[in-house]
Amino acid sequence: MIFFSIVCYFLAIFGVVNGDCAPGDVKNTQENCVHVENLASTWQEAENFCVAHNGHLASVHNAFDMTSLRKVAGICTNFWLGGQCQSGSKCKWVDGTDFDYRNFRNGNQGSDNCVVADTKSGTWSTQPCTATSCIACEIKGAMQDCQDWMKAGYTDSGKYTILVNGKETEVWCDMQTYGGGWILFQ
User: In this protein, which residues make up the domain named C-type lectin (predicted)?
Assistant: First the structure.
């Protein structure tokens, strides 16, 4: 029994269990699920595909996020990320998060507009947005409790859906008392 408890502890600590991600997907450091689809697409087709699956092209905020994507890349040699750059200027992520990490090959983003990642090296380059590549989607992980909703910016008390034992469950969240994020059972 003690051995079983220790094994479960290490599985939870080191993230071997993917929680609420689909089979074959992994969580990144933002607690979102990432998936690489082997489907040659332009950048806009790739973003449309991800949006249709309740996500966006993936944003990468650190080396750990990039490693997560490379783990699920399968046979894809490269894949679109959610980055777009203006020639010689600032880049942005399509999901609106800060472009706070850069991993461009040779430190140079290039002169094209859309960001693509190389699976083998993990480095990025820019390509014409009309080129084709595999698709790296990032999908928000299912909310586990009212605190997750609160962290996502939902501050009104009311009914919310959370994942309980793998099943979507409607609960009442108190977002006001003692800092908020409490599940109320009646």
Answer: 29-138
